[in-house]
Specification:
single chain, mainly alpha, about 0% strand, globular
């Protein structure tokens, strides 16, 4: 997802961030600095010990916020 999609996702989830906070959060996810958050980058940030139930929830969440 790109930064606009990330902004929209944060808004959809009722997470209010300033532009500076949004940029900082986006950059944390965009580890390779290509201007997009890939599924693997998304997982890298939120991963912990993931059982099958948690992995399914993460996949559903990502699909919900990734609009393309």
């Amino acid at each position: 997802m790109d930064k606009a999609e990330f902004r929209e996702a944060m808004s959809d989830m009722k997470i209010q961030l300033s532009e500076a906070e949004l940029t900082k959060a986006f950059n944390c996810f965009d580890r390779n600095r290509d201007g997009r958050i890939s599924y693997d980058e998304f997982l890298t940030i939120i991963i912990g010990e993931m059982n099958d139930k948690r992995r399914i929830l993460v996949e559903k969440t990502f699909k919900r916020i990734d609009r393309d």
